[in-house]
SET domain-containing protein
Amino acid sequence: MSGVLPSPRPGVCNLGAPKYGNNFGADILCSIAFRSCRTSLSSGDFKNSYRLGHNSRSSLGGNSRIRNGFSGGRGWAAREATGKRAFVCMAAAVDRAAAATEFAGWLKEQGFPDQALEMKMFEKEGLGCAAARPLKAGEIALSVPENFCVTAFDVNNHPVVSGPARGRGDLIGLTLWLMYERTQGQLSKWYPFLKLFPEATASPLLWSDAERDELLKGSPALEEVKDRVAALEEVYEELNSGFFEKDPQTFASEGFSLTAFKNAFSTILSRATYLPTADIFALIPYGDCLNHKAECEAFLDFSMEDEAVVLRTDRDYRVGDQVFISYGADRPNSDLLISYGFVDQSNPNDFLSIEVGLLETDRLMGLKQQILEQAGFDNPQTFPLFKDRFPTQLLTYVRLSRLSDVGLFAKILFDQDVIIDQTNEYEILMLLMGECRVALQAYAGGSDEENRIISDKKASIKEKLAAQLRLCEKQILINSMAALRNRLAPIRGIPVKGGGLKDPNSDIMEMFDMAEQIASAPSKFLSNIFKK
């Protein structure tokens, strides 16, 4: 039918750029994908991983067990300490290029094997890794022996932080490890490694309440950040009352304050890599300097055969080219900002979530719920809206939710974009238009204002990052509304209040204006139009 946009493959509604079409199966998962590199936690996983300590991806069992054959840094040579024990912050003033050179030399002294990568400063990304020799796709570019990685093994066997870390997740354990080692200054055997770490990131987890409320207004990220901050502060209070306050000589107030805890956590969140094969988080020399590129498919993982963390390239690199990895598939900009402190405005995987469900008063709710369960969907169900596409299952789900004729249930197909009838299609498109309109109205200002802030040299880093995030999210909503308008325009014979039929093309713009004006109450509007 002319009203259906072509899809690059089944399961995708294309908004104009088939290059990035994804194929969503019936058991679509709209939470953040946890495929590979770096930390990527849904809100629930994020809180459980350090509140409860039993999350399968980041749990510490409170003992020194080796998880899935990966033990971590048991083989680091003890470095003779020189210098004073004093709390140190790895501030922005540290020359990271010089620190990287020093660290590479120190690793060499420890017996670290030669690599095909070298740490290097880049103009845009800062510290990263460049190809030290030509690399072919599929070639091993990095192989870090397990004993050079910092993991739960090091935390569990640490003379000081093993107690506070017991029963908590990897991320909190590594955070405590970093806090303590920072207090040791040059006495820490890890000092050359620590000098490469930033004191903190630009994550909104570290922003003030006022900054978050102002800069993230309208963005779904605001509530996510608030939830995570509340959970993080709850964990700190448990640690402070249970350990820090009881032993101020070991846990000096300056190094174990709430601010120090949050700063260290943001650093670990951005630097730690999740290794799927070993089911463990690790701090990996060289590996934690690799920068993210959304279209990259290369990732770090533990090789049981090599007993090392390995990176295989997904493309060819020339000498001096920056080598990239993926921090995880399908990660929206809100997650990149929270976890790493940056926004990728060209991120093809950026998305906003929309939740849909059945009406509680629907007399056919039981039957509809059975259909959804058989197709692998929940009630309610969350779907992603991308900048250039959304899953056809979203439309099918909403079509089913508005059907009142059991005879039409046979036309419900979640693997195809099939219009049930024009009345139903008009209704669900108007409902989705309303949802997008309400979401867009929650933001302050327009796209021009966001671009002005981004290009303003006087704007702060936080202001620029927030503007980038808001602009990307607004564009998703604007593009989704445009696609819904395109689907509405060709629909013929739309019923009107008078009971007759009307060609919408004659006053289509008036219809759209009306829809947007009353978007906060689409159901009421539709109930008046579709009188039966």
About this structure: The first strand starts at residue 13 and ends at 14. The two ends are 26 Å apart (CA to CA). Residues 27 and 377 are 6 Å apart (CA to CA). The longest helix spans residues 461-488.
